[in-house]
Amino acid sequence: MDIRHISDTVTTTLTTFGLKVLGALLAWIVGRHLIALAVRLVSAALTRQQVDPTLLRYIGNIVSVALNVVLVVAILGYFGVETTSFAALVAAMGVAIGVAWSGLLANFAAGAFVIVLRPFKVGDYVRAGGVEGTVKEIGLFASTILTPDNVTTFVGNSKVFSDTVQNFSASAYRRVDRTAQLDHTVNVADAIRRLKETLAKIPNVQKDPPPDVEILDFSVRGPVLAVRPYTHSDHYWQVYFDTNRAVVDTFGAAGYPVPEERIRMHQGSA
Predict the structure, then answer these.
(1) What is the pairing mode between strands 142-146 and 131-138?
(2) Pair 153, 139: CB distance under 8 Å
(3) Integer angstrom CA distances of residue 90 from 96, 117, 169, 223
(4) How far from chain centre, in Å, is Cα 252?
(5) Can you name the residues that pair with 214 across neighbouring β-strands?
(6) Residue 178 burial (CB count, 10 A)
(7) Whether the Cβ atoms of residue 196 and residue 210 lie closer than 8 Å to each other
(8) How buried is 142 (Cβ within 10 angstroms: 0-12 exposed, 13-18 middle, 19+ buried)?
């Protein structure tokens, strides 16, 4: 056996394989940069066409995934892997993965419906999938919502689409619902007048429609007022807290007594 010949063969084979690996790594690095460039160019073109940011991110994700698949197939072809067989393998794996990852595919399909039906878009303040906050992104499989306490929450698109969606940004304003308990001895008309005057002075409260202050219910302590100013969604919590403070300050300035439960007992004659 010619040891020298075997050594030369092994060296040549390893050198060829090493060069192919280096070529594949170079192709991967360059390909990834080209994919990022292509996604940026597509995004820029769609931005110039004033495409909605929600749809823009969705298309960008699809283009990125598709080009990465093409890059992997090309690198495998460079190594001599039969790509037609690979395509059949990918199809078979797709079926298996589809069965195993039916939930993810449901999220993907639901994401497409969210894009088409547009119950909300990026930047809207919503309650969806049991989460309330500002929509930051609608991805392929999940939507990203930033809650009021600054927590980034990812909600599966299938949960979003199958649940009730409340879009608070769809209208020009929303109503703040608060209540105010009165004592039995308080003049209700006077309390309503004072509250309406105070609510009208709160920053960002709508003048049209004006705040509603009416008798909502009765309790053992006295009448219960519905206190309902209107404001834009961006100022909801500011108006919410200011309304609570306005009720306390108004009733305190008027000298209204603190509501107390009063029970009158009558004792019959023996």
Answers:
(1) antiparallel
(2) no
(3) 10, 31, 43, 70
(4) 41
(5) 226
(6) 17
(7) yes
(8) buried
Token pair listed for 139: 């991805």
Please name the residue that has the structure tokens 């009558």: 266
In angstroms, the CA 152 to CA 149 distance is 9
The values of phi and psi at residue 159, to 5°, are: -70, -40
Chain-centre distance of CA 270, in angstroms?
70
Q: How far apart are CA 178 and CA 154, in angstroms?
A: 31
Closest by CA position to 35, among listed 57, 54, 63, 56: 63
Beta bridge partners of 126: 133, 167
- Contact (Cβ atoms closer than 8 angstroms) between residue 64 and residue 42: no
The first and second tokens of residue 72, run together, are: 């992997």
Rounded to whole angstroms, the Cα distance separating 198 from 75 reads 71
Kindly report whether the peptide bond that precedes residue 259 is cis, defined as omega within 30 degrees of 0.
Answer: no
Run of H or E including 212: strand 212-218
Q: Is the pTM of this model over 0.70?
A: no
Place of tokens 């940026």: 40
**Cβ 210 vs Cβ 200: under 8 Å:** yes
Angle at 59 between CA 35 and CA 99, to 5 degrees: 95
Identify whether the C-beta of residue 243 lies closer than 8 Å to the C-beta of residue 199: yes
Task: Kindly report, residue by residue over 127-164, the tens digit of the pLDDT.
Answer: 999 999 999 988 878 899 999 999 999 998 888 888 89
- Residues 12-68: pLDDT tens digits? 766 766 667 777 788 788 888 888 888 888 888 877 777 667 667 777 777 887 788
- Burial annotation 13-30 (CB, 10 A radius, 16+ → b, else e): eeeeeeeeeeebeeeeee
Ramachandran angles phi, psi of 189, nearest 5°: -60, -40
Q: Check if the beta carbon of residue 196 is closer than 8 Å to that of residue 213.
A: yes
Task: Give me the residue label for tokens 């878009």.
Answer: 121
